[in-house]
Amino acid sequence: MAPTESDLRSPEWFRTVVFYELSVRSFADSNADGIGDLPGVLQKLDYLTDLGVGALWLLPFYRSPWNDDGYDISGHYEVDPRLGTIDDLDRVVEAAHGRGLRVIGDLVTNHISSEHPWFQSARKDRASPYRSWFLWSDTGTEFSRARRIFPDYETSNWTFDETAGQYYFHRFFSSQPDLNYDTSEVHTEMQKVARFWLGHGLDGFRCDAAPYLYKREGTSCQSLPETHQFWRDMRSMIDAEFPGAVLVSEANQSVPETVAYFDGGREFQMVLHFPIMPNFYLALAESNPKRVLDILKATLPSVPPDGAWAYFLRNHDELSLEQVSEEEKSLFFRYFPLPPGARVHNGVRRRLAPLLGGDDGSVLLLTALMLGLPGSPYLYYGDEIGMGDRIDLPDRDAVRTPMQWDGSPSAGFSSAPPERWTRPLVTDPAFAPPARNAADQEASTHSLLWRTRTLLRVRASHANVFGSTGFEGIDLGSSPVLGFWRPGEEYRILCLYNFATEPSEGALPLPDAVWASPIELLRGDLSSTVSGHTFRYRLAPRGFSWTLFLSRRPRSAGGRSASVR
Ligand code: MG
Asked: Who has the most CB within 10 Å: 174, 355, 439, 535?
């Protein structure tokens, strides 16, 4: 269900919608060159509105040599010609808005491509005005405490450039020199980049590598006070010039460092919840969701009134295990068997469905959990049909293969001969197009796609509750069931999730303020009875339920009275 006009005008629109992250390059090819493109996205907007998402996150579509799939930008004010033109982007944004869909892009501030004219000028001429836009060294030994992001590929954060006659600093690949934020022109330029794309109608940005902008000797060079100030300035500019546009932080850090990117409402409206993400999987491994409830209790109070956690299960990167202990990593690897080569960058380059053994029930359990929490859920393209991965492709390309639209040899992605495609299709028979595709799943009410859509529709129908900040965790002791209330004005919703591979039963007290006549919003997994003020439930293996209870005394004067007994 698309958001209404009033939802779109609400400054907190982002809390009521589900985001859908997609790679333009891998989504749909409109011009038979083997590369997905913006007109391809335009052609698939019906699919996206039918799915029920409310916002698209388009992975970088800017000019780039694609050494890091577009996160190495060589032209900040251009669409990469292989993906289309700026007019094509305008058409996508206009058509999306016409359907009530928001569109956000990526803002990549930490680094650029080494092919960018700024870096080319800087390396060739010490007198270039761009020389100070980068970090140079005669020894390449500074900032030694700065973590390497891609330790499997880079042995140092410094690379010697023969032409420049000096080392330059790069937190990511050596083809991505970091910008120098001690140079004020860099700030001005990045605000100009943000203005440019917001001026083309984008509704905000997912901000790549947010913690790394400033470097200071003797520190980890992440989340420094100066870096937070940069983001406060960006937020102030956007609030003043583009009210309603949002910033989403990518900060894969510890809980306190991650929470700091809300900064009480002064920096990001949304912060990707990296700390909770691996705990979703560990809870499955343990058949015990206590760790998830604990981290929710610890992190939900930090959200400012105009903010939201951004939840995700998978994305275009590896599933990061940086924030978990060695013991937890061992548990993860014991429970989720991986093919050789699936581990990379201290994480796992697998998609959701193959990681969970192709079990749609587990995929739906975690998806429904993410959708039930206060905050903004992010789906990754293809996970709604249980697409697989290709571990034989380099690095994270494993999880960036073409969308599987149908079961044909081309999967409906492109009519170009497959040898011209920049990325091949999944071949594992369990997850390849004949087994997992959108067309077949649209025709079956039992499919992962259909059931995912149902979840999104039910969530959208109750956006007043699911889009609110209310959350009351329920202590169910050592039960494998995670339970919480989502309280609303006229009714409240009880969310239950069974992490066990066996059925689970239990009982919980109902609040005095509800009528004891539950309405089950999802069908199939729950059987329940109410006696007095006790709710007894039985959930199927890996089953879940959302159950509505009308309030006895609605708090809103003039609201619809709850008269159902
Ligand atoms: Mg194309």
From this structure: 355
